[in-house]
Amino acid sequence: MKKVEIRVRQTEKMAILEVSGELDYSNVEQLQQEIQRRPEEVVEINLRELKFIDSSGAGMLLNQARHLYRQGRSLRIVCIPDHIREDLELIGFFRVLEILKADPDA
Amino acid sequence: MVEVITGNERILRAYCLEVSGSCLPAEQVGGDFFEFIPCDARTMFAVIGDVMGKGFHAARLMETIRQMLRDCITNNPHPLEAVRLLNKVAGYELRKCGAFATLCLLCYDGITGRLTCVNAGHHPPLLLSDGKVKVARCRGVALGLLEDYLGSGVEEFFLAAGDAVVLYTDGLVEACGPGEQRYGLERLKKIVCLQNGANADRMKRNILSDLQAFTSGFPQKDDVTLAVMKVAGRAGEKSGD
């Protein structure tokens, strides 16, 4: 299993999950469970220290974003390293996030 | 290396195409696939794709999507319509599992040399012509992420004898080498550029050798799939079989 570390910080309305290491099919549930555990209105995922994400990681983030938007909450993904941003851009990740924000059932 | 060369050579010669492809799994079986699908006497489809995840589940979903794609092409052989329809039917299966799939579909007309390309979240193909490499610009959202397919539409090229098309999955350009460097698109373009004059199988082997040299000694995270098709002439100019 690849190593991923999640550090949690929280403010009144927002949880910040700082993710480092490599996020892939073998450990993606760790982050998924942490997102699902948060009761805050906004869950922010900070990817500054993330080295690698595979399609399972990207798919999980979009599924969780859809889930939170349906509840009237939101998932923010910030500080994305350039090489990971390029990979996510290719699959249409950011377009999908925008569309889901407006219509979580799209 | 698990090498998979699909397509009936007899049929492909009828389109005056040489094709060669390989899938190299990383740790366990994944969702990469490629296929050459004859449509009618002059038209052939080529597809490359990658289903999210690993193991039996991804492999089973990949097989389902391949079959659905063949059905969609039979239903409507226009590549954009085939991808739209595939996103409807396969998207339903993918969403049930919280998954998605990337795919690039090419349609080649062996009489006119026209190559039509539609992309759903996949790395766009490279085109080698007269020693110059061009990256296709077609883009689109991966299958299963939205109810309706969203993309830049079809992109068309006209291929001449000697031109080649290189299809690959993310495992190739994201392969790791020294200092956590990636193999990358620029290195791939350079090695493809040097393949002018080589046949499809030689091109594929040379690219994989260069990848091997770059990644030697470093464990890989993802499967690598590479497929090359090269125009040998115009369909009808040669006798086929």
From TrEMBL, chain A:
Pfam families membership = STAS
Q: Where is the STAS domain?
A: 4-106
An annotated Gene Ontology molecular function = anti-sigma factor antagonist activity
On the tree of life, the source organism's domain of life is Bacteria
Q: Which Gene3D superfamilies match?
A: STAS domain
InterPro entries the UniProt entry points to: Anti-sigma_ant, STAS_dom, STAS_dom_sf
**Record-stated family:** Belongs to the anti-sigma-factor antagonist family.
Specify the protein name: Anti-sigma factor antagonist
Q: State the species of origin.
A: Desulfofundulus australicus DSM 11792
Automatic annotation (TrEMBL), chain B:
Instruction: Determine if DNA repair is one of this entry's keywords.
Output: no
Q: Name the coiled-coil region(s).
A: none
The UniProt keywords, alphabetically, are: Hydrolase
* InterPro entries, per the entry: Bact_Sigma-Reg, PPM-type-like_dom_sf, PPM-type_phosphatase-like_dom
The PPM-type phosphatase domain sits at: 14-231
Judging by the UniProt lineage, the source's domain of life is Bacteria
Please list the GO terms describing molecular function.
phosphatase activity
Please verify whether the record's keywords include Protein biosynthesis: no
Query: What protein name applies here?
Result: Sigma-B regulation protein RsbU (Phosphoserine phosphatase)
